[in-house]
Amino acid sequence: MDKNRLQKISRYFEEHQIRLATAESCTAGLIAGTLGDLPGCGGWLECGFVTYSPEAKNMVLGVKFDTIERYNLTSEQVAREMVEGALHGSRANIAVSNTGVAGPSSGDAQVPVGTICFAWGFEFNGAVVIYSETKKFDGDRNQIRQAGADYAIERILFYHEHLPGGVMPRAN
Fold first, then answer.
1. Which residues pair with 118 in a beta bridge?
2. In which band, very low, low, confident or very high, does the pLDDT at 126 lie, cut at 50, 70 and 90?
3. Number of compact structural domains in the chain
4. In the chain, N or C terminus with fewer CB closer than 10 Å?
5. Is residue 129 part of a domain?
Protein backbone atom coordinates (compact mmCIF):
# COMPACT_ATOMS: atom_id res chain seq x y z
CA MET A 1 0.00 0.00 0.00
CA ASP A 2 1.43 3.37 -0.90
CA LYS A 3 2.42 5.93 1.74
CA ASN A 4 -0.14 8.54 0.60
CA ARG A 5 -3.00 6.08 1.07
CA LEU A 6 -1.67 5.05 4.47
CA GLN A 7 -1.41 8.68 5.56
CA LYS A 8 -5.06 9.25 4.55
CA ILE A 9 -6.04 6.19 6.58
CA SER A 10 -4.06 7.51 9.56
CA ARG A 11 -5.87 10.86 9.38
CA TYR A 12 -9.20 9.04 9.16
CA PHE A 13 -8.35 7.02 12.29
CA GLU A 14 -7.41 10.22 14.14
CA GLU A 15 -10.54 12.10 13.02
CA HIS A 16 -12.82 9.26 14.13
CA GLN A 17 -11.10 8.52 17.44
CA ILE A 18 -10.24 4.98 16.39
CA ARG A 19 -8.18 2.79 18.70
CA LEU A 20 -7.22 -0.26 16.67
CA ALA A 21 -6.18 -3.76 17.70
CA THR A 22 -5.07 -6.46 15.30
CA ALA A 23 -5.35 -10.24 15.72
CA GLU A 24 -3.22 -11.78 13.01
CA SER A 25 -2.43 -15.32 12.02
CA CYS A 26 -1.19 -15.76 8.45
CA THR A 27 -0.09 -12.12 8.10
CA ALA A 28 2.05 -12.54 11.25
CA GLY A 29 1.93 -8.89 12.28
CA LEU A 30 2.05 -7.28 8.82
CA ILE A 31 -1.14 -5.31 9.45
CA ALA A 32 0.22 -3.80 12.66
CA GLY A 33 3.68 -3.45 11.11
CA THR A 34 2.37 -1.65 8.02
CA LEU A 35 0.36 0.76 10.16
CA GLY A 36 3.22 1.09 12.64
CA ASP A 37 5.39 2.60 9.90
CA LEU A 38 3.25 5.75 10.06
CA PRO A 39 4.35 8.66 12.25
CA GLY A 40 1.75 9.30 14.94
CA CYS A 41 0.35 5.76 14.88
CA GLY A 42 0.73 5.64 18.68
CA GLY A 43 -2.37 7.80 18.87
CA TRP A 44 -4.61 5.10 17.40
CA LEU A 45 -2.73 1.78 17.15
CA GLU A 46 -3.57 0.10 20.45
CA CYS A 47 -1.96 -3.35 20.12
CA GLY A 48 -1.37 -6.35 17.91
CA PHE A 49 -1.76 -10.05 18.66
CA VAL A 50 -0.01 -12.65 16.50
CA THR A 51 -1.45 -16.10 17.10
CA TYR A 52 -0.56 -18.91 14.71
CA SER A 53 -1.36 -22.09 16.60
CA PRO A 54 -4.82 -23.19 17.74
CA GLU A 55 -3.50 -23.17 21.31
CA ALA A 56 -2.36 -19.55 21.03
CA LYS A 57 -5.66 -18.52 19.45
CA ASN A 58 -7.45 -20.16 22.38
CA MET A 59 -5.19 -18.92 25.17
CA VAL A 60 -4.62 -15.35 23.97
CA LEU A 61 -7.85 -14.56 22.11
CA GLY A 62 -10.38 -17.00 23.55
CA VAL A 63 -11.07 -18.86 20.31
CA LYS A 64 -12.91 -22.05 21.22
CA PHE A 65 -11.36 -25.37 20.21
CA ASP A 66 -14.88 -26.50 19.29
CA THR A 67 -15.09 -23.67 16.76
CA ILE A 68 -11.76 -24.67 15.20
CA GLU A 69 -12.76 -28.32 15.06
CA ARG A 70 -16.21 -27.65 13.66
CA TYR A 71 -15.36 -24.96 11.08
CA ASN A 72 -11.60 -25.32 10.43
CA LEU A 73 -8.71 -23.12 11.51
CA THR A 74 -9.15 -21.11 8.31
CA SER A 75 -12.76 -20.00 8.68
CA GLU A 76 -14.75 -16.84 9.17
CA GLN A 77 -16.04 -18.27 12.46
CA VAL A 78 -12.49 -18.46 13.85
CA ALA A 79 -11.69 -14.97 12.49
CA ARG A 80 -14.82 -13.63 14.22
CA GLU A 81 -13.82 -15.13 17.57
CA MET A 82 -10.31 -13.74 17.10
CA VAL A 83 -11.64 -10.22 16.53
CA GLU A 84 -13.88 -10.48 19.60
CA GLY A 85 -10.90 -11.61 21.65
CA ALA A 86 -8.82 -8.67 20.43
CA LEU A 87 -11.54 -6.22 21.41
CA HIS A 88 -12.05 -7.79 24.83
CA GLY A 89 -8.31 -8.08 25.48
CA SER A 90 -7.53 -4.45 24.75
CA ARG A 91 -8.80 -0.88 25.03
CA ALA A 92 -9.46 -0.81 21.27
CA ASN A 93 -12.82 0.20 19.83
CA ILE A 94 -12.06 -1.44 16.46
CA ALA A 95 -10.24 -4.68 15.72
CA VAL A 96 -9.29 -6.62 12.61
CA SER A 97 -8.35 -10.29 12.41
CA ASN A 98 -7.31 -12.87 9.86
CA THR A 99 -6.55 -16.54 9.57
CA GLY A 100 -5.52 -18.26 6.38
CA VAL A 101 -3.14 -20.29 4.25
CA ALA A 102 -0.32 -18.27 2.68
CA GLY A 103 1.58 -21.29 1.37
CA PRO A 104 3.66 -22.61 -0.11
CA SER A 105 1.66 -25.74 0.75
CA SER A 106 -1.93 -25.99 1.92
CA GLY A 107 -2.67 -26.54 5.59
CA ASP A 108 -5.21 -29.16 4.58
CA ALA A 109 -6.97 -30.34 1.45
CA GLN A 110 -10.09 -28.27 2.18
CA VAL A 111 -8.43 -24.83 2.01
CA PRO A 112 -6.50 -23.74 -1.08
CA VAL A 113 -3.31 -21.68 -0.76
CA GLY A 114 -4.10 -17.95 -0.81
CA THR A 115 -7.34 -18.25 1.16
CA ILE A 116 -7.65 -15.75 4.00
CA CYS A 117 -10.65 -15.31 6.30
CA PHE A 118 -11.06 -11.86 7.82
CA ALA A 119 -13.19 -10.24 10.51
CA TRP A 120 -13.62 -6.61 11.50
CA GLY A 121 -15.17 -5.75 14.85
CA PHE A 122 -16.52 -2.38 15.94
CA GLU A 123 -17.69 -1.27 19.35
CA PHE A 124 -20.70 0.75 18.33
CA ASN A 125 -23.60 2.11 20.40
CA GLY A 126 -22.83 -0.20 23.33
CA ALA A 127 -22.58 -3.35 21.22
CA VAL A 128 -20.03 -5.09 19.03
CA VAL A 129 -20.76 -5.20 15.30
CA ILE A 130 -18.74 -7.80 13.38
CA TYR A 131 -18.31 -8.19 9.65
CA SER A 132 -16.44 -11.10 8.05
CA GLU A 133 -15.47 -12.33 4.63
CA THR A 134 -13.20 -14.79 2.87
CA LYS A 135 -10.94 -13.83 0.00
CA LYS A 136 -8.44 -15.69 -2.17
CA PHE A 137 -5.18 -14.00 -3.17
CA ASP A 138 -2.66 -15.07 -5.79
CA GLY A 139 1.11 -14.97 -5.62
CA ASP A 140 3.86 -16.41 -3.52
CA ARG A 141 3.70 -16.62 0.28
CA ASN A 142 4.84 -13.07 0.97
CA GLN A 143 2.72 -11.56 -1.82
CA ILE A 144 -0.35 -13.29 -0.36
CA ARG A 145 0.48 -12.09 3.16
CA GLN A 146 1.04 -8.48 2.04
CA ALA A 147 -2.10 -8.47 -0.12
CA GLY A 148 -4.06 -9.80 2.86
CA ALA A 149 -2.67 -7.12 5.17
CA ASP A 150 -3.44 -4.33 2.69
CA TYR A 151 -6.95 -5.67 2.12
CA ALA A 152 -7.62 -5.88 5.86
CA ILE A 153 -6.54 -2.26 6.36
CA GLU A 154 -8.64 -0.92 3.46
CA ARG A 155 -11.74 -2.74 4.63
CA ILE A 156 -11.56 -1.16 8.09
CA LEU A 157 -12.67 2.11 6.50
CA PHE A 158 -15.23 0.42 4.26
CA TYR A 159 -16.99 -1.33 7.13
CA HIS A 160 -16.61 1.64 9.48
CA GLU A 161 -18.45 3.79 6.95
CA HIS A 162 -21.20 1.15 6.65
CA LEU A 163 -21.99 0.76 10.34
CA PRO A 164 -25.73 0.87 11.08
CA GLY A 165 -26.70 4.51 11.44
CA GLY A 166 -23.39 5.82 10.10
CA VAL A 167 -19.85 6.05 11.31
CA MET A 168 -18.59 6.75 14.78
CA PRO A 169 -18.33 10.48 15.54
CA ARG A 170 -15.41 12.62 14.46
CA ALA A 171 -13.12 14.03 17.11
CA ASN A 172 -13.86 17.64 18.06
1. 98, 133
2. confident
3. 1
4. C
5. yes
